[in-house]
Amino acid sequence: MLTISERGIQMPASPIRKLVPFAEAAKKRGTRVYHLNIGQPDIETPPAIVGAVKHADIRVLEYSHSAGNESYRRKLVEYYKKVGIDISHEQIIITTGGSEAILFGFFTCLNPGDEVIIPEPFYANYNGFACTAGVNVVPITSYIENGFALPPIEEFEKVITPKTKGIVVCNPNNPTGYLYSREEMEALKEICIRHNLYLFSDEAYREFCYDGNYISAMHLQGLDEHVVLMDTISKRYSACGARIGAFVTRNKQVYDAAMKFAQARLSPPGLAQIMGEAAVDLPDDYFNEPKAEYQARRDLMISRLNKIPGVFCPNPGGAFYAIARLPIDDSDKFCQWLLESFEYDGQTVMLAPATGFYGTPGLGTNEIRLAYVLNLEALDNAMTVLEKALEVYPGRKG
Amino acid sequence: MLTISERGIQMPASPIRKLVPFAEAAKKRGTRVYHLNIGQPDIETPPAIVGAVKHADIRVLEYSHSAGNESYRRKLVEYYKKVGIDISHEQIIITTGGSEAILFGFFTCLNPGDEVIIPEPFYANYNGFACTAGVNVVPITSYIENGFALPPIEEFEKVITPKTKGIVVCNPNNPTGYLYSREEMEALKEICIRHNLYLFSDEAYREFCYDGNYISAMHLQGLDEHVVLMDTISKRYSACGARIGAFVTRNKQVYDAAMKFAQARLSPPGLAQIMGEAAVDLPDDYFNEPKAEYQARRDLMISRLNKIPGVFCPNPGGAFYAIARLPIDDSDKFCQWLLESFEYDGQTVMLAPATGFYGTPGLGTNEIRLAYVLNLEALDNAMTVLEKALEVYPGRKG
Q1: Which chain A residues are closer than 8 Å to B45 by Cβ?
Q2: ipTM exceeding 0.90?
Q3: Does A352 touch chain B (CB under 8 A)?
Q4: Which of residues 24-53 of B touch A (CB under 8 A)?
Q5: Alpha helices in chain A, H assignment, sequence order
Q6: The domain spanning residue A296 has which CATH number?
Q7: What pLDDT, in 10s, does the model give residues A214-240?
Q8: Chain A hits for B254, Cβ within 8 Å
Q9: pLDDT for B234-289, tens place per residue?
């Protein structure tokens, strides 16, 4: 018999997308589903960047340079300068979304069997990319009580082995919304230098910091050889479907090796590179509006969550996610129940069980992730639905 | 010291793109370079499909379904029906170019250390994808004397081991242009069934068959579980930069596992999916013109090549490539020399050394690959340049 690969068996199914059939069934029954389960913002993609594609003069849509169009990479240098990151266009590879940047980082820096440490809860697809690359994810737990702050450095030290080759940090964090402080980033730097580790830094949400300052891994002095920045325009410009990201490093050896993976797949998406390039020319105040909108949503959502009996949700400093603790038996059951068996006034809410974001089995069973990607009115309704649901959920605890 | 991965070291640099700096230098000197080195057609991308993107009403460019937009997959079912392939939209995953379809195939079906047999010369990036997946490529040699026909089945049998899990076939072939016959495809089928192998079928060039009929691996009866079709719109519609391909299989287990890799990277490029969908609605006679154009180019190029003393080039039945044997010492040296040290009337030609397409070291040293992606006049000039170059090349042999 033909068999699929071990990797194909072990590859995790998306913990977010596995509830999709239940959501589809709910919609077929006529229930309105509020999608707080996925980081797909409803913010308009800037018409100017969509327009750049519409007005482009394309006779032949050719392969671009494998690192992406030079004109785009040079533009990105300007963008990064604005956020305090000084790099050259020859330190950037345009990727197919942030996803490919992560894959290039893992493929280039890590051998099968190597370990990367990731504070949990973490972006679930890191598991998929690690599995693809044959890399083992070693989680160290951060806790809801202190808002998912970076675990103490001793916790990192405890799990470091000769196989440990890197740390993955997502700042501001998906799924917790936590914004790492200068001190925390410096602590990561120290440990990377002491143990000779790569720092893979996923900074997809840097524009959305509400309390405190965004510190890029690229801002850290003396860490040039260690840092691999994995970036994307998906959230920045509400252009998730574009699939344009960037792999950025000052480590020439890493860059050159990553370029070989980039060459094998020929080039990143051509039309969307035009969007990305145009985006750098958006007015500097472009982010004010979406940022204010997200902040208002956060304020509403966190406030409403913490008023629901038995619910606790720390106030996230950035991104557009929060993890809340609910008075429930099992977050997977609860999220499925919301879609299968509950409605309030013809509405229900789709959430992501936090279990999918933890590497340690058994954690997150009473936590869910919410993405505040809906407008204030929808979000307010969704909170009412959640409140009503918790009143009647059969698996309610505590 | 930080080290890059073994995979990063072993990953092959693109044998085509490594000559690029020499071509750039030649252009800077004012030399016109005819690019016959890469499969980047000069055929216009159909304005209707670019127009479909320009006229699309996009408020938020959202993630699509991880398998690609359902509307596009349903359209592709129509397309495949026209080429005699009967599949459903739930047997298709839209990929980021054919490249990602190949990667998904290898990741899903093959373990690190497994072997795939590929008739050589073969598309060089299979090496990169195999390296990425930790898979070993086992080449079996096809020969210029019989136009690079499929090697006899005994040659396959000789190299099959317990590690052998699949065969990769590219039909019509890149880099040879060879079009496999019904008998050859049936022979592949027999061996796949006998030895329980996957048949990974890269059919990027199916629209461009000039002599004889195109037989898809999907046309073979009784091979449903074995076939993974890796497809792309890059060449079909001269839309290489779109990065839209397809992974197609009737093997449900393989499909479901591949979907997990697709989910991890969220979705394929959004704008270009609109192009792909519109392309299915192009008039049925759309291909007549580009096909006639390629055929005229092939006829010109092959005829001119075979008139050059010491040159032999079989007549390829499909795609837009040919491999020619030249009276030279070393194809890598020759191709570099063309760019570095030669010009005729202010012009030179960029070719791909065939060495990069062979897995067996030492083969292809007197062969080069030509992509007939330039118009007839440019192609004719390029042939004159090549003829003149061979007259004076210091490493001429025979």
Answers
A1: 58-61
A2: yes
A3: no
A4: 38, 40-45, 50, 53
A5: 6-10, 20-28, 47-54, 70-82, 97-109, 125-133, 153-159, 182-195, 252-264, 270-280, 288-307, 331-340, 376-392
A6: 3.90.1150.10
A7: 999 999 999 999 999 999 999 999 999
A8: 2, 4, 8
A9: 999 999 999 999 999 999 999 999 999 999 999 999 999 999 999 999 999 999 99
